[in-house]
């Protein structure tokens, strides 16, 4: 276990052609021996400065190393580049090969020389190409001395507007795809990884990443303003010696070229979409809050790592299991942005990291073959389980479709079955209990018996009338006794009519 503060290196770039043409005043005084930088207020004063309440005069900042500007194209510039590498490259490479995680990230305003320092320019090699060559030289030396097996993998990603792009796979990675390594807890998993064997292959992958960036996420001017992350994964298998047993180490070397913050980054572009600078300012603002929280004297503060994708990347580098270098690049003539950069770079120097050697596995020589067999078997099982999982997903989709279809058919058959049961019940009930048709009686109608009595009374009255007529027509042959009375019929009430009562 090793406890060390974050190392901070500040590089002051030379004046640009625009600054030379306008006779811009140099506001910085660099003391390379004492590693101090003094910033002076501009000649016009601090009335329009956002730091006017913090600054009353010259301000001195202290760092681990400072580099004053050299004339462009001079021998001094080449010496400065080499000195910059000697103060960064060996420390990062040796830390990584010892098994520690290591990180270098740049910080500064636009045009301060961050990308120039890390990647380089035409005719000038940056830190990453030099570091790649030095890394493989050290790997060759270690392998020759210890007979160790060391593998190096590379990943390249771009963070733009809180979205992560995998530049070696030309795809956008979701936040759920990116996670911490189980053994090192390093926030670098979820990207494509390619094994490399020399510095030339690293250079080829960086060119591929740059081409992907230009064709997929660059703006109309062909530039991107996000944060570029280059991640090296170093896996070591060290055989048993007289002084130590066999072991495996796995560590990460992460280099981040952070995007720039600008004064007008809060403004939107012409089509109403927030510019990349706005996304940079948001993530860099979270980074500043993380630095302020880690260096605060209050111990109950919550560190806002999860407020930005960038700070999740840097969570191990700032206050975690990592050896970290901050390369702050500043302009000599811009007071506000330079003061902000120096202020946060000096604060980052107070952050303490607790780094440990990432030993992945320890095992005896006699168990090496068995261990390799187990690892190979587990890897084969993992691939097979992944295939089974994909097959299971397809089967589940088919089962869901069949389930929906058969549930619909079952509901239809249940309705038909219910209808048939009801119909059968009605048929059996009608057979066992036949219905007798009884016509309802109309209101006011008399029963059949009362009607016959009424007819009998009418007949009696009729006979009386006949007798009276017989008296009037004496001498008629017919007598009342010889008259045959009409025969009455019982008929249904519905068909009773007076003209059919007599036969």
Automatic annotation (TrEMBL):
MF term (GO), any: microtubule binding
State if Ribosomal protein is listed as a keyword: no
Report whether Coiled coil shows up as a keyword of the record: yes
Give an example GO biological process.
mitotic spindle organization
Listed binding positions for ATP are 108-115
Q: Which UniProt keywords apply?
A: ATP-binding, Coiled coil, Cytoplasm, Motor protein, Nucleotide-binding
Q: What is this protein called?
A: Kinesin-like protein Klp8
């Amino acid at each position: 276990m090793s406890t060390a503060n974050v190392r901070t290196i500040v590089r002051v770039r030379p004046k640009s052609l625009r600054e030379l043409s306008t006779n811009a005043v140099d506001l910085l005084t660099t003391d390379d021996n004492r590693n101090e930088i003094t910033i002076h207020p501009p000649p016009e004063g601090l009335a329009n400065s956002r730091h006017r309440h913090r600054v009353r005069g010259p301000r001195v900042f202290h760092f681990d190393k400072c580099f004053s500007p050299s004339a462009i194209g001079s021998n001094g510039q080449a010496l400065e580049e080499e000195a910059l590498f000697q103060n960064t490259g060996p420390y990062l490479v040796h830390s990584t090969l010892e098994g520690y995680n290591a990180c270098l990230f740049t910080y500064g305003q636009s045009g301060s020389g961050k990308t120039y320092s890390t990647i380089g320019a035409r005719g000038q090699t940056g830190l990453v190409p030099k570091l790649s060559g030095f890394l493989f030289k050290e790997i060759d030396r270690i392998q020759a001395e210890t007979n160790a097996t060391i593998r190096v993998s590379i990943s390249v990603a771009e963070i733009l507007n809180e979205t992560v792009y995998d530049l070696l796979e030309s795809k956008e990675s979701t936040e759920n795809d990116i996670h911490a390594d189980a053994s090192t807890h390093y926030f670098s998993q979820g990207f494509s990884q390619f094994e490399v064997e020399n510095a030339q292959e690293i250079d080829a992958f960086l060119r591929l990443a740059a081409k992907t960036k230009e064709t997929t996420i660059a703006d109309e001017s062909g530039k991107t303003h996000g944060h570029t992350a280059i991640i090296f994964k170093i896996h070591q298998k060290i055989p048993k010696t007289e002084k130590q047993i066999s072991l495996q180490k796995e560590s990460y070397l992460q280099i981040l070229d952070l995007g720039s913050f600008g004064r007008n980054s809060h403004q939107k572009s012409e089509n109403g979409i927030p510019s990349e600078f706005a996304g940079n300012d948001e993530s860099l603002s979270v980074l500043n809050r993380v630095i302020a929280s880690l260096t605060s004297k209050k111990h109950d503060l919550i560190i806002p790592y999860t407020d930005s994708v960038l700070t999740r990347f840097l969570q191990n580098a700032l206050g975690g299991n990592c050896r970290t270098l901050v390369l702050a690049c500043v302009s000599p003539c811009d007071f506000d942005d330079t003061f902000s950069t120096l202020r946060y770079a000096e604060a980052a120097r107070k952050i303490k990291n607790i780094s440990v050697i990432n030993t992945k596995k320890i095992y005896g020589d006699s168990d090496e073959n068995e261990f390799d067999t187990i690892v190979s078997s587990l890897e084969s099982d993992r691939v097979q389980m992944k295939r089974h999982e994909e097959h299971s997903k397809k089967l589940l989709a088919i089962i869901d479709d069949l389930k929906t279809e058969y549930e619909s058919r079952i509901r239809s058959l249940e309705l038909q079955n219910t209808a048939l049961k009801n119909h059968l019940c009605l048929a059996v009930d009608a057979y066992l209990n036949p219905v007798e048709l009884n016509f309802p009686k109309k209101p006011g109608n008399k029963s059949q018996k009362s009607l016959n009595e009424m007819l009998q009374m009418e007949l009696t009255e009729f006979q009386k009338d006949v007798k009276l007529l017989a008296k009037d027509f004496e001498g008629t042959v017919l007598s009342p006794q010889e008259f045959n009375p009409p025969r009455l019929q019982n008929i249904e009430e519905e068909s009773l009519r007076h003209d059919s009562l007599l036969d």
